[in-house]
Design brief:
Radius of gyration: 22 Å
Strand content: 5-15%
Shape: globular
Order of helices and strands: HHHEEEHHHHHHHH
Distance between the termini: 56 Å
Mean pLDDT: 80
Strand order of the largest sheet: 1-2-3
Structural class: mainly alpha
Oligomer: single chain
Number of helices: 11
């Protein structure tokens, strides 16, 4: 059996080695730096940043059980990335009329009415303490810091790591021939394709996760030696194109679920089968709770 690494190296001798990618972690930006870099992004890249920021914030809120109210439920958060009070540049407002960067949408459990509030009135409306309000602000800052990593990478000329992605695809190409293929992280693949489409660098954590996925596939290949695999460069490249297209079509058809559902599925991908029952129970409770609201 040909070693999968050496075969890939024969096919792509000039691009086999991975390019340098900073792995030291996130970088905090000033508000000014953040806005300057954001303004230089093209529309698909801005959309990607906004989508992930909104998702992370929604995930943060659905996990804050002390924000559960008898009459109102957190619905979503809108974000004004161009917010600048000094320049009077803003387009989101609290119900009181104040310009805001983060607009929190609450929905009445009884009537379905929605209201848009800034952080101060959001806290007041739910009757939460100043301590909890400060915890919310801290959570929002952490989301900003997480997205700063992408902006920092983009500002320094990094883009989507095609070399890493191609090696991962080769691993998946090899993996499909195994009798017991490795169960790769599908959530990670979907996220990578989003970033690839926008030509954006990926999170350092995702870069490391891909390396781990490649190693895991290599380990599975070593555990299951076979003489039936005959790598073919043209077939691999066809597989790569088909794989990306199929994943894109699947994503387009996928319904949009509650933020908590994605988080639970992500956990499901990471844990052992013997531990999955707890996650499945949590998911069932979420589905039942959603049906009760309907």
């Amino acid at each position: 059996m040909k070693d999968q690494k050496s075969l890939y190296q024969q096919w792509y001798p000039n691009t086999y080695q991975l390019k340098a990618y900073p792995l030291e972690g996130r970088k905090a930006l000033t508000v000014k730096n953040r806005q300057e870099i954001y303004q230089r992004l093209i529309k698909p890249q801005r959309h990607l940043i906004e989508k992930h920021k909104k998702y992370q914030m929604s995930s943060f809120f659905v996990n804050q059980h002390h924000l559960i109210d008898a009459h109102w439920v957190f619905e979503t958060v809108n974000i004004d990335e161009n917010y600048n009070r000094k320049l009077k540049r803003y387009h989101l407002h609290c119900q009181c009329g104040k310009a805001i960067k983060y607009q929190f949408i609450l929905k009445s459990k009884k009537t379905g009415e929605t209201i848009a509030l800034g952080i101060t009135h959001f806290a007041d409306h739910l009757g939460i303490s100043q301590e909890v309000a400060n915890e919310i602000k801290k959570g929002l800052n952490q989301v900003d810091l997480a997205l700063d990593e992408l902006l920092w990478l983009k500002d320094r000329g990094y883009t989507f790591p095609e070399d890493l992605w191609q090696q991962f695809l080769y691993g998946l190409y090899r993996n499909k021939e195994l009798i017991r293929p490795y169960a790769y992280n599908q959530v990670l693949v979907e996220r990578l394709l989003e970033f690839k489409a926008a030509a954006m660098p990926i999170f350092v954590a995702d870069y490391l996760a891909v390396l781990n996925e490649i190693r895991a596939i290599e380990t599975r290949v070593q555990e299951e030696p076979t003489t039936t695999f005959k790598g073919n460069k043209q077939l691999f490249e066809r597989f790569s194109n088909d794989f990306e297209q199929l994943e894109k079509e699947t994503e387009d058809l996928k319904p949009k679920y509650h933020a908590k559902s994605y988080e639970l599925y992500d956990q499901w991908q990471k844990i052992e089968k013997t531990e999955r029952s707890k996650v499945f129970e949590d998911f069932q409770k979420l589905v039942e709770a959603t049906h009760l609201k309907d």
